[in-house]
Amino acid sequence: MSIRQWKAAVAQAEPCWFDKDAGIEKSIRLIEEAHANGASLIAFSEVWVPGYPNFLWGGNYHENIPLVHKYMANSLVADGPEIIKIRRAASQHDIYVVFGFSERVGGSLYLAQMLVGPDGNVLCHRRKTKPTHVERTLFGDATGDSLNNVVDTPLGKIGMLNCWEHLQPLLKYNTWAQGEQVHIAAWPFNGDHVGIEPWSVCNEANEVTMSRAYSIEGRVFTLVTNQPLSPEGMKKNSEGQANAKESFMLSGGGGRASMFGPDGRQLTEPTDPLFDGLIYCGIDLDKIDYAKAIADPVGHYSRPDLLRLLVDDQPKSYVVKVNRERSDQVSWEPAPTLLESHKTLKEIDAEMRKKGAIA
């Protein structure tokens, strides 16, 4: 049985650029603040730690080499000590945490999202299915299990996508088809439209238009979280770049966090573009019924006899070891999902006690 009414906290917060330790400390402070203000869930932006790599859009390959190295050094391992701190904070403050981070696996990075429950356990771990444009020079693709991006919780069915995944019609439909009720739209910094770039890259197009459309199409609550960019943040993201001022991703400001109801109406007041903190709003799941009674895109307002979505949500591995039990048969073990790789917080604590790392 879902809790029908509860409060959500959404971060419009500037990352601690290229500094994972400071980023984790700031995350914990915001988690504490959200709990103190009665929130049941807090949502963070795309690759919140160590911040979205705005520098990719402003410099050339040679200029960006030092920044790429710094970014990789401050990316997080999914079961590393930084993520465990976030899991402990969620447990200590009895709150759901939707956490965006640059995930490092060996020499590869992924745009990752994680839902941590109030017991500190990982409920969802996914990666952006296809990095956008120049993001592909830094990040890899997800595999099939990242399509399982909705979790049934006491707060309702919570789902999430990153940035321009909200421009992928099939990906959105796959998310709604899992019964999503509350959606976290995790955006990076997006500035105003300033030059010859398409209007579709500005914050009004993304944080406002696409996020509102997501609510209207899917009949869900949409929590919009993003990153403002201060003058100091601009400096850190343009170090060594000759033409950074020409980049629309280094224009500054950009804060546009908000929440939209399942009928598309905005439930929060506009924020200052440089506001650095949390906004709050109440969620009432019963409002979804009013919207879906008119149109349910994955129910009565669909024609599966004519149009259907084919989904392959199985994880894929780079290496598959073949077992030959009989000469005429070949079999192999399926690759584990990202979620299956996580231990519970109790299991982690028990292992640390054995090692004497905690009392």
From TrEMBL:
Q: Name one GO molecular function term.
A: hydro-lyase activity
Catalytic residues? 46 (proton acceptor)
Q: What PROSITE patterns does this protein's entry cite?
A: CN_HYDROLASE, NITRIL_CHT_1
What EC number(s) does the entry state? 3.5.5.1
What sequence ranges are listed for the domain CN hydrolase? 6-285
Entry's Pfam families? Answer: CN_hydrolase (PF00795)
Q: Which reaction does it catalyse?
A: a nitrile + 2 H2O = a carboxylate + NH4(+)
InterPro entries reported for this sequence: C-N_Hydrolase (IPR003010), C-N_Hydrolase_sf (IPR036526), Nitrilase/CN_hydratase_CS (IPR000132), Nitrilases_CHs (IPR044149)
Source superkingdom? Eukaryota
Q: Which UniProt keywords apply?
A: Hydrolase
Does the keyword Hydrolase feature in the UniProt annotation?
A: yes
Q: Which family does it belong to?
A: Belongs to the carbon-nitrogen hydrolase superfamily. Nitrilase family.
Q: Do you know which PANTHER family this protein is assigned to?
A: ARYLACETONITRILASE (PTHR46044:SF14), NITRILASE (PTHR46044)
Question: What is the protein's given name?
Answer: nitrilase
List the source organism: Botryosphaeria dothidea
